[in-house]
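LAB NOTEBOOK - FOLDING QUEUE
OPERATOR: T.R.
BATCH SIZE: 2
PURPOSE: Compare the predicted structure-token outputs for two unrelated chains run back to back under identical settings.
PRIORITY: normal
REVIEWER: second-year student, initials M.K.

ITEM 1
FIELD SEQUENCE / FIELD STRUCTURE:
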Amino acid sequence: MNTFCLDKFRKSYPEYNSISDNWFVWFIGFFEGDGCLTIGKKNIEIVITQNELNKHVLFEIKDKFMFGQVIVQKKFNVPGKLWTYRYIVRDFNGQHVLLTLFHNNLIMPSKKVKYNHFIKIYNEKLSRAKERRKLKFCELKFLNDINKEPFPSSKDSWLCGFVDAEGCFYSGFTQNNQVRVCFDLTQKEIAKYSCENVFNIIKKDIFKDSHISLKKSKNTTSLFLSIRTSSLKKGLFQVHNYFDKFILKTSKIHDFLLQKQVLSKFNQVKDSSDKEQLLNLIKQNRKKLF
């Protein structure tokens, strides 16, 4: 099974050698969840979008790479409505850095297809730029299609980045005041670019088949793949073991830590007063409950 390889990237851009592989692999997973390679009529952009609770992550990315912009995409004057921020890379040099990092290191099938389409446009624009300003762009090399398929493992941080973008840690209770916690990771399934194989690997090789179901659910318009566990015993502890090793960066870290706290206290519940304290803990830390 292929794993992530940053050798080509580090050889091309040694100025980033002080940044760990774990951070770069986390970033790749985060981009595959919330990033986009956009192709407009005139311009192409690499974009990552987050709400204002996670704008610090976008600024971290900008500071690490030392290029790109963080801008406000949407402002809301409604109380409780979060603003939307975007990290955007428009220049040839910055895009070349990211595309070199992504080459043969993207996992999700739809992102690979988008990458191959994006670099065709990028190479065409770079070719014209080289003709106009040879000295400025002479060191930028044309990019190749993706031809390898890495997969995530329990030893790398890709899933941490992907969950920072797409995963959920729920802690709440039912109408009968029964504690309910679960971890959920869901993706819209596109038949032509199925991610089922990726989800199977996550289920089997990272979470060790521990009471985690992989199933397709269908509504009137869409098909989704979902990995979910709500086991108060082995299942969630398998999930937590991974995220104890690779630390979440977005606001989901608070949901994760709350869930760990709830599980710990749940195992200590002896009577109704203990249960009431547990329910109050959840109420105090979450606005939206089950």
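ITEM 2
FIELD SEQUENCE / FIELD STRUCTURE:
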Amino acid sequence: MHRLALLLAACLVVGPAFAQTASGTKPKSALDKAVVEDYIRHLFVWGPQISVKVADPKPSELPGFQEIRILATAGQASQELVFYASADGKRMIQGTIYDVSKSPFEADLNKIKTDLQPSFGEAGAPVVIVMYSDFQCSYCREEGRLIRKEIPAAFPKDVRVYFKDFPLDAIHPWAKTAAIAGRCVFRQKPAAFWDFHDWIFEKQGEVTPENLKEKVMEFGKTKSLEPVQLNACIDNKATLAEVDRSGLEGRALGINSTPTMYVNGRKLVGQAPWPQLKAVIEHEIEYAKTHGGGEKCCEIKLPSPLNQ
């Protein structure tokens, strides 16, 4: 009886191991990039038309878990996901880790650069809005109209607005050229940029890839812009690097649609109705009053003791 018990115990230990070796399989692990890609494709129904890149696991802020970043792209569309894999590779968690000693928006705020960008509103305002927009996007047109009308009227000293180019040229054939032209206007006469912003959205239905430059030149005459300089800037794409830099920044933030805006780092995707946006702004103003100035968003100051 004693020998029979030992034999049964041996079978229980050796049997599964033998079966695993015979089948040639091994346990799946979230630390295996191929396993993760296969799992994620199945989870989100991502077919072969979507490129999926799984980064090497790296230590995370969550003890006992490895951070795994996944970038999915299809043409100009992209999406980045962050997962956390357990040390044994058996479990994955998707989510955001928050450090309660820091702003919940710090990671995005660190990516947003507003120096030398078109802006309006009070310098040093407690609320900063950064808009990523496309001049050929109809939703951007409506959001742009709302921002330009409502913000100065409701919050003349409490909000500063910055504009960032994010042309979706895969679906909007003249958006990038318009962004280049807008930057040319801003480079020559910064105060005229917002006139250009309002004008091109108003003319959106009339503009084509063929007549864009002609119309911009006509606009330039109404603002006393030097025509030779403006013409050369557009033809030579002198501001292309600025537009591309803004686009890269947007993609680093995970933006894949317009309009997208950040209110003190808080991301709002799509056309925000005024009651919703107004409520968010009011919340940020009140938060700033009770938390020593609120979030430190997007302001670059000269290195003077007066600006400390």
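REVIEWER COMMENT (ITEM 2): The chain has two domains: 27-94, 106-290.
FOLLOW-UP: none requested
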